Structure formats: structure tokens, C-alpha cells
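REVIEWER CHECKLIST
Item 1: Sequence provided? yes
Item 2: Single chain? yes
Item 3: Sequence as submitted:
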Amino acid sequence: MSGVDTRNKLIGIIKQHQLDNGMTKLPIGKLSNLAGITRQAFNRYYGDLKDYAKGSQSISKLLVSDCTSLSQLLESKEKRLAQLEFQLIEIQATHKAELTEALNKHITSLMNNDVMIYESGQISATLTSQNNHNAQLIKRVTELEVSNTQLIADATSTYNFNNEINSIKSSKNFIPLEIDVKALCKSYAVSNDFDEYEDAKDAEIQKNIKIIKALPSLEKVDIVVFQERYISDFGSFCKTINPRPDHVLVALQLPLYSRAEIQLIVKELTPVASLSIYVPYSSSEAVIASKRKFIYRGVPEEELKDADEARVPLMDWGFDSIQVKRIKQGD
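Item 4: Structure as written out by the authors:
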């Protein structure tokens, strides 16, 4: 699909959203998925459509030559306006009667509330049980993927993270590229907007990618991607790896989880000497909860969910080697 086709598809999705829901927000992640592209691709090539997706601009501005679509938008808005006016009249007409009825049924309502609390408790218990079952299934799938990936990595790995033959680490041959997670979380606590959090995270990642691509002699640069799962410290990981002789080792913190997103980064880093990935893993809910309570407090729930449900990367994603490390209490 060409860029023009993708752009038209994005505009069509936003138009339909505004027809169905008015000037309400369409999350960038959802919009990108519906269009079959990554969030990074949207930000890079179609960022001018962001205001339309957020509902701060009417898509009609992009449909000047499309009379049919403009008519649909106008008809939709007029219909919604008529609905709101009708609802307002109904509310005004029934408000007094409802207030009187509410006062008369106050005691009965209290009794009904007791019944509803009981019933909602039963429903909540059922949903909790189902969620726990789903969580166990997800955990089991992840454990199987970890086991499978570890077998592949043991058989095919060409890069030893603890290479006995290595150079003395210094600022000249070792470059840690970290994401300022605390700053991202601090901004998110103010905005409570996950789209803004994702945009800021992508900007941090792209800044580090530019640093790597600006390095001289990329054929002598080894990159170890630290896939941030919010259960293991990036700084501690950096202390365990060493550069090869006559090579520069770059440790890249990368909080991305879908295959498409990761392969987009891999493609940008292809000219380097070697590209490996380190994946911290834990099946212990106690360990995960402890890490996130005391170290990664403030990370958005959507981000943690993406990290927990992420597949373990595979060799055919473009890596030379993969290391999956089980994280224990105290690591």
C-alpha cells in the first residue's frame, strides 16, 4: 500500500469515527492498528493528522473536494444536535417528577441497593475468577515461549554477554543509552494521557537511534538491546556486559513490545557489527509486584500490560542472538 493510500485510509477511519462519535478522541494506537501501521510510522509520516484523531479538529477540513463526505458529516452533526435538543427537553420535562419520585422511594431504594450490592459482588467474583484464569493462561504461554527461545538461543547464539575475552570498559568503548522513565512517568502523572506518554517515549527512542547512527565505523559497533519489562534495572544490566576488543558496545534500553515496532528499530540498526537482545523474565507475581512498587511506580497500566503480554523476540526478527534471563528477588 502506497503512502497516499495509507493516508486516505487514515482519513477515512477518522471520518467514520467522527460520524459515529462526533468530535471525540480516537487513540493514536487504535487508529494505527486499524490502518495496519505502527504508531512510529504514524508519528513519522502522518503526524499532521494527530489533531483530527484527538477530536480537536474536524475532519471536514480535509474533505473539501469530497462533497458526499462533507454532507455526511453535516447531516451527522445536525442529527446529533437535534438529539441533544430533544434530550434536553425531555430532561427538563421529567426532572421535577423524577425528583419527587426519588424522594418517595428513598427507603425502597436503600433496600434495592443492598440487593444490587450482593448481585454485583457475585458478578465481580465471577469476573475476577475469569481474569485470573486468563492471566494463568497468558503466563503459561509466556513460559513456553521463554523455554523455546532459550533452546534456540543456546543452539545459535554467536555473542557471549559474559565473554571472557573482552576489553577494559571505558566511555570510549561502552555507551549506555537509557530512556528517562522517571521523567516520562512524571509527565504522565500530570497529563494522564497515554498517547502523549507514547509520543514522548518514541521521541526518546529516536534520539538514541540517532546517536547510534552517528557513530563512526558502525561495522565495529555491537548493540545489545535491553527490552525493558519493568522488572529489572537497566543500570545493573550494563555492569554485566563488556565490549569486544576493537569494538564499541552500545547498550540500548528499548521499551517496545510488538514485532512490528521492534523490527522497525532493527531495520534502522542493520549496518552494525552485531545486534543482540536481552529479555528479563519472571513468572513470580511477587517479584514483579515488588519491582514495580518500589522501582517502577508511576508507569502507566497500559504500558505494564503491553510489557506483560509481549511475546519473547525470535531470531527471525533480525537478531544475531537472544538471551532470556530469569529475574529473582534481589536481582
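Item 5: Key structural point noted by reviewer: The beta strands are 174-177, 221-227, 248-254, 274-281, 321-326.
Item 6: Recommendation: ____
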